[in-house]
Amino acid sequence: MLTDEVLYHFKNPQHQGSIEDAEIVASVVNPACGDTLKVYVKLDGDRITDAKYKIYGCAAAVAASSVVTGMLIGKTLSEIESIKREQVSDALGGLSPTHAHTAVLAEDAVKAILRTQREKS
Predict the structure, then answer these.
(1) Shortest CA distance to 100 belongs to which of 66, 52, 58?
(2) What domain range includes position 46?
(3) What is the CATH number of the domain that holds 39?
(4) Domain count along the chain
């Protein structure tokens, strides 16, 4: 069952799209279901000024992507290290076991952003 928050973000996705001149572009895939998330990040120093995403996945994956990109904006790269799947799930009103993988995908995207930035440095 999808929560009201999941349905809201699915019907009204925030931060969807891409950023042409993004400093960081990170992609993650859930091998079990095939959900694929690509996140674009714009920086001012080490602060995230914009984040957008493209997602191939279910309604809960769209919602988790919408929420996690919102969590990124305004934070520094070191601050986003604390973003975990539980926060994403909580922001979506709790995810059922069937949809919990979407919060994992969102957390994996945060880790990929940080890994990509470290590799560039």
Answers:
(1) 58
(2) 4-120
(3) 3.90.1010.10
(4) 1
